[in-house]
Amino acid sequence: MLKTNESIKKVFHNFGFTDVKKIRKIDVGFCNDVYSIDEKYILKVNKDIADERDLEKEVFFCNLFKNKIPAPEVLVFDTSKKLLPNYFIIYRQIQGDNLYNKWHLLTDPQRRHVIKQICGFLKKINNTSADSYIKKFKVDAAVSWEGYIYKKINNWLDKFEKNKKLSYETIKKVKNFCQVDRGILAESKMALTYFDAHFDNFIVQGDTVVGMLDFERTDWLSIDYSLELVDRMVKEPKKYSSEKTEKYIKDKDYKDLLSMYQKYYPKLFAFKNFHKRLAIYNVEHYLSDIFYFPKVKSLREGLNKVLIKV
């Protein structure tokens, strides 16, 4: 977090904005510090040099999608590190409510209307040419999807074997799991894919989605990968919400999410062994979370449930 509000005020003054009167820290995101400025602008600042590429990606995709979906309007992207010690962006704040804050108030038809809109956005992203992204970010467009996912899983296992924060028995279970299900991910539909569709990333006015956020979580992936997080929202709806919104969240309000997505974007589900594919994605995600949050017991429990079920 930035030490003083004065540094933020200097940033906005430097770019010719009116004098800043109100600065509000927004408690979202692990990789960036996020601030609302006078409820008109959003300032997003990198916390770590390792995440600079992600901020570059966010700006790239906001510009790529701006005429297709309600992406933020980027006003400033500064990589100089002269005003602040990290990369930062300023975009116009989208007026509305966080979807997590409103989901419990929506009727079932309204919820379906919201998911239909989100599916429409995901489809537009999938159908957008990836050529400019692949060229700019030097992406291997010919990558094996199966190889990509299993490489990520094996990389996490290698790290756990070194830091000893995952038991030998669990590591062995994951390796056996991967061997049994080898070949399931040979099928893929590669495209630009947004894989951060939790409700903190959507802004609504009533039941109309007016904003979509955090486009750094977009990449050249198999399109069904976007459902991994939706699946986890069904299983653990509080996981991606802020502390302020947890009190509104009830499991029953999220149990039908996958069926809604299937109705409005069936192509995401058109894979053989679909549920096993989701389980593989779950395993990779759990390993990532456990590595960064090794003391959270529920993550280990969630991983074990996936390994036992399949």
Describe this structure in words.
By secondary structure, this protein is α+β, with helices and mostly antiparallel strands. It folds into two domains: 5-92, 2-Layer Sandwich (Phosphorylase Kinase, domain 1), CATH 3.30.200; 97-309, Aminoglycoside phosphotransferase (APH), C-terminal lobe (Aminoglycoside 3'-phosphotransferase, Chain: A, domain 2, Alpha-Beta Complex). The chain contains eleven helices and ten strands. It has helices at residues 5-14, 52-65, 99-102, 108-126, 131-136, 145-163, 168-180, 227-235, 257-264, 274-292, 297-309; strands at residues 23-26, 32-37, 41-46, 74-78, 88-92, 97-98, 190-194, 202-205, 208-212, 218-222. α4 packs across α9, α6 packs antiparallel against α7 and α8 crosses α10 (274-292). The longest helix is centred in the middle third of the chain and has 19 residues, at 108-126. The protein is globular, with a radius of gyration of 20 Å. The mean pLDDT is 93.
Topology, pairings included?
Layout: H1 5-14, E1 23-26, E2 32-37, E3 41-46, H2 52-65, E4 74-78, E5 88-92, E6 97-98, H3 99-102, H4 108-126, H5 131-136, H6 145-163, H7 168-180, E7 190-194, E8 202-205, E9 208-212, E10 218-222, H8 227-235, H9 257-264, H10 274-292, H11 297-309
Helix pairs in contact: 4-9, 6-7, 6-10, 8-10, 10-11
